[in-house]
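anyone seen this seq b4? input:
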Amino acid sequence: MFGIGIDIGSTATKIAVLDENGALVDADVRPTGFSSVEAAAAAGEYLASRGFLDGPHAVVATGYGRIAVPFADKVVTEITCHGLGAAFLFGDDGVVIDVGGQDTKVIQLMGGKVKKFLMNDKCAAGTGRFLEIMADRLAVSQQQLADMARKGEPTPITSMCTVFAESEVISLVGRGEPRENIANGVIESVVERVATMASGVPGEQVFLTGGLCDNAYFVERLASALGRHVQTEPNARFAGAIGAAIAASGL
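predicted toks r here
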């Protein structure tokens, strides 16, 4: 019996598969692209190619495009799945921070269950998509953005809206501000907004999930802003899909 989770986010689609013993046996990530329906079809093709649909299985879909998965046995909210996935990866008690493409979620876990959660405004300049846009504006990759930020001086970016924040960056470029300083300001603006959200959710341990879990500089700056160690690991980007797979295993 395989428990299969599919998390169709605005930026990336993640797949996680658990075996009958609850062990993670497969995980895959790919760009969602223009269509959630096409992303769901591609996920189904991947699962079929790996043989996970041949025998007993259950599928739970979550994320931005969860209703686009026609072969899902059930759909479950992102908050529930991220909570389950984070508990699987890190432990039953703590604060889960997920910086997604369109929104950022902060979840309080107690006893492996969601006790409280907050989500930011989708327009707020505190998401992974904001970092993508700013990296593109500076003609660098996400990793290069982080490397430059480490060398830069603080340069405040104050707009709460991605569109206006981009205009700020364009103005900074126009007046000759070093790219390292702009990169520093971009990442610090996201860190500040995420840390402000997290301050409203109590908990000693902090778990970072989502696409920024492998951005060492972001993790370092977030830990500094929170004054607490931030735990993460490579599979943390699959937390939503893992949580969906856990939910599928219980069907």
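The helical segments are 36-49, 78-89, 128-137, 142-151, 162-174, 179-198, 216-226, 239-249. The mean pLDDT is 91. kinda curious what u guys think
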